[in-house]
Amino acid sequence: MTGRQHGGGRQQWCDEVLAGPGGAMTDEVGVITGPLTLRTTALPDGRLVRIEVQYKDAEEWYALTGSPVLHHGDPAAVHAAALAAVRTGHAAEAPVPPAGPAPA
Fold it and tell me: Mean pLDDT across the stretch 70-98?
C-alpha cells in the first residue's frame, strides 16, 4: 500500500488491484472489472475520504459506490478495507468503517 502527501497537506493512497469476480461498483459506469487502480484521498474536512477506481493506466477515475466515507481517524485503514473489498469483487462498494470511539 502506498501513501503520500497531496497538495494542501491532504493524504492520498494509491494501489493497483485485480478486481475479484463481479468487479467493483462505480457511480458513473456501474461495475468495472480486471486490473484496476484504487485511490483514496482524505478530504479537506478531515473526517471523510473519497475512494475512486480506474482501469489500470486509464485517465478516467470513477467514484466507488458509497464514497465518500467517514474514516474515524484512520484513512489508511479505509483504503486497506477498500482494496480487500475490490479484490473480493461481487460488485464491491466503499467499505463502511466501524463506528469510532465514543465521545468522552
Answer: 93
**By C-alpha distance, which of 35, 31, 38, 32 is closest to 52?**
38
Separation of first and last alpha carbons in the chain: 33
Q: Which three cell numbers stand for residue 24?
A: 467493483
Q: What is the pLDDT of residues 46-73, one digit of tens each?
A: 899 999 999 999 999 999 999 999 998 8
Render 2-48 in DSSP notation, one character per residue: -EEE-GGG-EEEEEEEE--TT-EEETTTEEE-SEEEEEEEE-TTSSE
What's the predicted TM-score (pTM) here? 0.87
User: Contact at 8 Å (CB) between 11 and 42?
Assistant: yes
